[in-house]
Amino acid sequence: MAEYKSIKGNKIQNYTTDPDNPLTGQVWYNETDQVLKVNTGALVGAWATVNSLNTARNALAGTGIQTAALAFGGENPPGPNALTESYNGTNWTEVNDLNTGRYLLGGAGTQTAGLAFGGIGPNQAATELWNGTNWAAVNNLNTARRALAGAGASNTAALAFGGGDPNTGATELWNGTNWTEVNDLNTARDFIAGVGTSTAALGFGGYVPPQTAVTESWNGTSWTEVNDLNTARNQLAGAGIQTAALAFGGLIPSPTLYTGETESWNGTSWTEVNDLNTARQGSAGVGTNTSALAAGGESPRTAATEEWNITGGTKTITSS
Questions:
Q1: Could you tell me the mean pLDDT of each successive run of 10 residues in the chain, 320 residues long?
Q2: Which ranges in the chain are annotated with CATH 2.120.10.80?
Q3: What's the pTM?
Q4: 44-310, which class in CATH?
Q5: CA distances (Å), origin 32, targets 20, 23, 36, 102, 272
């Protein structure tokens, strides 16, 4: 603030738009928004531990956003689990179970309109729709598999890709009623993570074998290899969209260890950022690259939940 005063004095500067490169601590009045603003410094992301799931489990799936999420399936005790929990930004609440218990499954959609598919259970092709209250069994995947990834902002338009038994690059498109086989991933793998929509997705990491850092981008028709993760791993989780994503957790090779490593994707390359507080594999990930949620996993098996948020940058000054 002393530096700002030496340049501008005590007068608050007026702007019609925010300044391009404000100093840390600089305060200004935005005439268009009619608010006071301050630059609180460089953007930094970090994980914070919040209230845990009611039931510890790993290899579960999730949908939604940080303040309105759904976590379902998983393994605890060893074997398929049908538990579903809803998160309101503060606490997890148990809601109605999946019809088919399973783990290492894929998910897409929102807290009130979700989709669950594949996984280890009685039927590795099983697909279910969530309407905000109950799960309903619908048409199966064409290729039964576990340890696959999903992408999609609704339960009527989703993408399922990768998976195992054996490893596959198979990709299927969901239209709300049926799955249709489309072009495969370039690198067949299981334990892959994915984010995005049915027409613009990102798939990263997985097990080929061994663990891989390969990242591929989906344009609605085909997959293209783009820049790799910095750390090869499998059983990781992700949040975000095709051009702005977060990858976190997983298993790293030689020796095989749980990791809390987190990487941020800007549409071109991955950058290492602050680690999870609890290193783990097989957690559910939801949200964006600036506001994400990691729930459950194996570290060993945990109910731990963490929120990722970005601090710094331009903030509005309020009276509260």
A1: 52 84 84 85 89 98 98 92 97 98 98 98 96 98 98 97 96 98 98 98 97 98 98 98 98 87 98 97 97 96 96 76
A2: 44-310
A3: 0.89
A4: mainly beta
A5: 15, 21, 11, 52, 36
